[in-house]
Amino acid sequence: MGIKKKTLAITAAAALTVATAVPALALENEFHGMFRLLGVVSNFDGSTTGEGFYIPDNKDKKAPTATYFEQRARLMYIAKANDDLKLVTHFEIDSRWGDNAYTTLRNHGGAIGADTVNIETKSVYLDFNVPNSGINVKAGIQPYNDSFKGILFDSDMAGVRASKTFGSLDTSLGWFRFADMGQINKTAWDMIALDTKYAVSKDLKVGASYYMINDDGSEQDWLQKTNAWNFYMQKGNTNITHTAGVNGEATFGPVTVDGFLVYQFGNLEAPVNRHVSAFAGNVGARAQVGRGTARTEFLYVSGDKGDQQGSTTNAFQSIFDESGYYSGNMQLLFRDAYAMTTDNAFVYSANNRDQGVIAGFLGYDLPITSKLSASANAGFAAVAKENVNKPVNLSSGQRNSSNYLGTELNASVDYKVYDNMTASVRGAYVILGDYYKGVAAGGEDPNNPYMTSVMLNYAF
Fold first, then answer.
1. What are phi and psi of 391, to 5 degrees?
2. Phi and psi torsions of 222, nearest 5°
3. What is the spatial distance between Cα 439 and Cα 454, in angstroms, rounded to a whole number?
4. Using CA atoms, how far apart are residues 328 and 286, in angstroms rounded to an integer?
5. Could you read off the pLDDT of 63-111 as tens digits, one per residue?
6. What residue ranges in 328-391 does DSSP mark as E strands?
7. Under a CB-based contact definition with an 8 Å cutoff, are residues 448 and 431 in contact?
8. How far apart are the first and last CA of the chain?
9. Which class would CATH give 32-459?
10. Helices (H) and strands (E) in the chain, counts
11. What are the start-end ranges of the H helices in 197-353?
């Protein structure tokens, strides 16, 4: 065979090999994401701390008004090998206009010049079905929230979670690692999570969940690791907690009712050894009323007197910055679902600085046209148990008798510019309760907080 014929044969064989290999290597590529731009005028953020709580204590009663713009982009790429196997990746880029430039720092890069390395990893995990078992597994850094509307945790976390359906029963079991000192120290903060949900009928679903969160670290351990130490402080020095509860949802004609009841027990190791005995409950309802949907929610989370003298604390231990109750549709009283790098609230976590919370909400969503809709909400909040975190009335030198935090009124109008882009105008105002009476500088009452905002949301 001549050189030309040999070359032609080799080329043909190589082409055939590639052609047969392509089906095995073929991937279905999916791209999703969102972009949000939020412009805010508010006097609220000037009276908060870096922890996110509204604290006007001993500050000028007239909090400064701030005007700022924030943006967030989320990019998701899914590499799907087949119906049983895919890799999910999810990234985020945040910044506030004018914040910084030419740096390597998350949540920055909005100043002139930009040129900042600031991409964040939200999720990277394998999602696959175990052959011939009916079991789905998610392994890696993944989004996961509790079955109690986020009062314990609502975050991205590294771990493994297996799910399986048995007829009308959905079950899942997971193990997650929140923080780790490394192989030599063998100090870690882990969670075991068990969730179940049973469909009694098409109109009734009930569930039960259990979460064990165990921390092997001491204060000295976490001081050596900045991020883990941050977690440690935020979660309230918890050594081990067991959180168990039930939840349900039932539909009665045009009305749907849901809620949960949860009990928490365990041990705190610092600042003094104490047992945990805490609980929380919620009930919510929604119904078609006229052309729109009416909503209502009630939430109770137990608190503690905070003197650290007894052997038991009744303060519910939530994971501070990685939890949030959004069902009341509040913008200031509770964490705003649309908040980005600036994220503050009266009740920033269900623990609420060991005070717990009593809260109720009413809302109404109205579709006006195919493109235009509106929503209005009202909510109130009070601490469940006053403690040393309650501010002092600077005129009387005593803490006020009232535990009432305030009442929020808010509204939004949304216009669908395109099928996947919505423009919104929002406003919120809080009438402060007597919990804050006389706590501003000079024994004055702080001015009522407000926030107005415009927002663009694009999703693809």
1. -70, 160
2. -75, -20
3. 32
4. 12
5. 999 999 999 999 999 999 999 999 999 999 999 999 999 999 999 999 9
6. 357-367, 372-382
7. yes
8. 57
9. mainly beta
10. 3, 21
11. 219-223, 226-234
